[in-house]
Fold this protein.
Amino acid sequence: MPSPFPGMDPYLEDPVRWPDLHHSLITYIRNALQPQVRPRYHARIGERIYILQPPRALYPDVLLIRRPIREPSPVSAYAQAPQVAVTTEEEEGELEPIILTLPPVEHREPFIEIVHAAGEEVVTVIEVLSPANKTPGEGHRLYHRKQQEILNSNAHLVEIDLLVEGLHTVAISEEGKASLPSHRYLVSVNRAPDKYRFEVYPIPLQRRLPHIRVPLREPDPDVMVDLQAVFTQCYDDGGYEDFIDYRQPPPVALSPEEAAWVDGLLRGKGLRN
């Protein structure tokens, strides 16, 4: 059964579910491109590897316990009767730290490169943003640095953001984003060498995901990716319907208008009472 949503399914914005969808999107976008670009070009999957520190909100820096520093005094027969206990600081013991070792986590992030068959020059980079890209920290810094390298090169950049939560990350400015029609998701295409011009697809939750024009080297024409068809294949092959409980609200924020629309949609499809 396909997703009940006409476009992106907000239930799959869940950080727990996202990695599986992310890898599928990358693979199926590559597969959709390959027959269109060969033999002059080749679409391949690359990978960035970087180290993430454990989130401070989830891991304590120091854990304190109470440990007595001396044995308690013997208890007399009279003292065995019920009474209110009074404990001094000395009897309770000093607070002593336990040392925790929190190893950093290796994070692997796939992306797509379209390379010229002759010489393997990178022509286009396609990124599907992940929570690590949009969360303050090394992942966001590394992505921004790579983004600027691409914008200052002769390669085109396609960014697909299907996550509403997190920092503004796509290459268009926040002012430019604010000028767009109301939307939840965003696709941005920058054609080299003009790093200040963007073709932007603002996508409301209620709409189908678009066909994206992916640029190659002139004079070769653009190739098309049907992002909705790719997502539908990801949903079907991932078996997501087996574990998504549409009776519950999605694990990410919705605007009041989106929440009302989602409720009506799911009730109409018999997925909510």
